[in-house]
Amino acid sequence: MKTIAIVNQKGGCGKTTVAINLASALAGLGQRVLLVDMDSQSHCAVGLAVPEEQIEQSIYDVLISRSRNEPVKLSEILWQISDGLELAPASIDMSAFEQQMAGVAERECCLKDTLDDVRDDYDYVVIDCPPAVGLLTFNALRAATDIIVPVETGYFALHGLSKQLETLSVLCKRTSQEVDVKVLATMYDIRTKMAREILAELRNHFGEKMLDTVITFNTKIKEASSFGQPISEYDPASKGQKDFRSLASEILSTKARQQRHDYVNSLAGQLESISATADELLKATQTPEKEVESILQDENILSDHTEREKEFASVEARAWEELESEVEEIEISTDQETESLSLPVEQTAEERTDAKLSDYYGVDQVNDAIVFVTLYPRAQNVQIAGDFNNWQPQETPMQKVGDSGVWQSELKLPAGRYRYRLVVDGQWQQDPYNELTEMNPFGEYNSVVEVK
Ligand SMILES: Nc1ncnc2c1ncn2[C@@H]1O[C@H](COP(=O)(O)OP(=O)(O)O)[C@@H](O)[C@H]1O
Ligand SMILES: [Mg+2]
């Protein structure tokens, strides 16, 4: 039995979509497959039309009851989805897993032990992970023989990638498992030049650590999940279905190869090297500042013509002018000193690109207001939860800026240090554009803002 965990602490990068459709495609190729949902949002059940209100027991009950006298059996909670595919659904109470298990010995092995009991019943287990590195994800990592990290092929996705992989690697240092980690390019939009370039760079850098199959951006995939069907059922002739079928075939053929070579790799080591590669990759795709404008265009940030949008564009232009004059000042002052002190031009351009992106997104104090700006092109709803609103996301919704995918919100807060997280379509995550973070008691990161 192979156990494939779909992991990436970034929300919205396609984990659940990959989990559901890979599981279904493997079943379509005659494999006996179990899909395990480890995300309390229960998106696997939603995406497979399992009525949430009828889920009486979930994988949570199985995991939590292992140490009790009468543990809940995995077979008691399963839903038959199609021939060869079963679902172990999640439930909202899973978000309390970490607290419930505090102090329990071997608490990161609950899922592994559960799956060990059924290893003769399935060929593949596919685990959908939550968008966070906590005890649930750690359980999935411990149970895994294979890990797939879906990566959206967009400039902004690369920005957080190495940090995310690094966190995973730190988490895995505690174990010395034999697992195979692969990067999967998802939501690939062949029409944009930037996506093509990023895919080429990904291939170039990750080499054999990257799956050959690429999942293209296909609206049928989105539609399928809103109808509660895997793409194989919703539209068997679609490009999306072809992609997932070829992903499943690739995985089946890798299994055969692995058995021949019987190669062993340590999880932390692999993640570390993938993370270093992600850093190099980001440097390689660091674009000179004159091209950033066109990248932002590509990502549809400046293309909307609403007033709000123009306002953003002008804020951005002003930030640029300021940056340029700052850099000029630095250049002038180094001119006057010895040559060895002058800044390398290339690095300055890189730094300016980064500065520009972090200037635009993230959190910033403007006079007496705190302005949050972020980019989620596919989200329906983005909110902020923090200690300033008692962690009640509905108190602080973010506003959509035209159709650009940019969201923003303005808050007036007294001076102090505040912790917050973004809630994107119900999923809690750290602000990807704010470097200032603090670990919370659940082992996840809160973003931090200082108000002066
Ligand atoms: N290849 C794709 N083409 C089109 N839409 C996609 C694709 N992959 C994911 N999506 C959509 O993007 C959104 C986020 O995907 P999801 O799988 O829920 O991400 P995650 O589980 O990482 O949060 C969903 O609305 C999903 O339908
Ligand atoms: Mg998900």
Task: Tell me what the structure shows.
- With 452 residues, this protein is of the alpha/beta class.
- It folds into 3 domains: 2-285, 3-Layer(aba) Sandwich (Rossmann fold), CATH 3.40.50; 287-360, no CATH class; 361-452, Sandwich (Immunoglobulin-like).
- It has 16 helices and 16 strands.
- It has helices spanning 15-28, 43-47, 59-64, 74-77, 97-101, 110-116, 135-143, 155-172, 193-206, 219-226, 231-234, 239-261, 267-285, 289-298, 307-336, 345-360, and strands at 2-6, 33-37, 79-82, 85-88, 124-128, 146-152, 180-186, 362-366, 369-375, 382-386, 399-401, 406-412, 416-424, 427-429, 437-439, 445-451.
- Strands 3-4-2-5-1-6-7 form a 7-stranded mixed β-sheet, sandwiched between helices. Strands 10, 13, 14, 15 and 16 form a 5-stranded antiparallel β-sheet that branches. It has a 4-stranded antiparallel β-sheet with strand order 8-9-12-11, covered by helices on one side.
- A hairpin with a 2-residue loop joins β13 and β14.
- α8 runs antiparallel to α13 (267-285), α9 (193-206) crosses α13 and α15 packs antiparallel against α16 (345-360).
- The longest helix has 30 residues, at 307-336.
- The radius of gyration is 23 Å and the shape is globular.
- The relative contact order is 0.11.
- Residues 260-264 and 299-358 have low confidence and may be disordered.
- Bound molecules: adenosine-5'-diphosphate and magnesium ion.
- Magnesium ion (MG) binds at residues 15-16, 39, 43.
